Amino acid sequence: MKKQFLIACLALLSFTTIPFISQAQTIKISGEVSTPLTVDAAYLQKFPQTTVVRKDRDGKDHTYTGVILSEILKGAGVTLGPELKGENLTKYLLVEASDGYQVIFALAELDKSFTDRTIILADKVDGSPLAPADGPYRIIVQDEKKPARCIKQVTAMQVHFVK
């Protein structure tokens, strides 16, 4: 009986506190950019929506909807397209989550002139907003074998040079 009571209390606590802790409403884009940017839901609505199908840990397909990440980065003046050559190929994007988790993408991984892989900043899964534990924003990497870089609860993105 005590175990069931404890489980019920933990479940109630997670529903009442986690959404307030984990839900960052904006994403700050900074670093080696010409225009530091704060991204929110209204900003994302200006872009065409793209879908990516990705399997979860149980092998079930889910359809994520969001904006191609490189399109968002262009708004911040990130070096992409014809300028992504020479020393600019040493630039990378550091993506941070609300819990401190971080992942890195080389800018070439995000540029359509280098790859056909689609990487989006998603705000919906299967037609609904992301669950509080995953969102409100999540990076989804198409066709990557492991989901380790499909970072949840994105709060910041910084562009840096490799030193």
Written overview of the protein:
The chain is globular, with a radius of gyration of 17 Å. With 163 residues, it is an alpha+beta fold. The protein has four helices and ten strands. A hairpin with a 2-residue loop joins strand 7 (119-125) and strand 8. The strands form two sheets. Strands 2-1-10-5-6 form a five-stranded mixed β-sheet. Strands 3, 4, 7, 8 and 9 form a five-stranded antiparallel β-sheet that branches. Mean pLDDT is 88; it is low at 8-24. It is 22% helix and 34% strand.
Number of helices: 4
Strand order of the largest sheet: 2-1-10-5-6
Number of strands: 10
Distance between the termini: 58 Å
Q: N-to-C SSE series?
A: HEEHEEHEEHEEEE
Shape: globular
Mean pLDDT: 88
Radius of gyration: 17 Å
Strand content: 25-35%
Percentage of residues assigned to helices: 10-25%
Class based on secondary structure composition and strand pairing: alpha+beta
State the major sheet: 5 strands, mixed
Low-pLDDT regions = 8-24
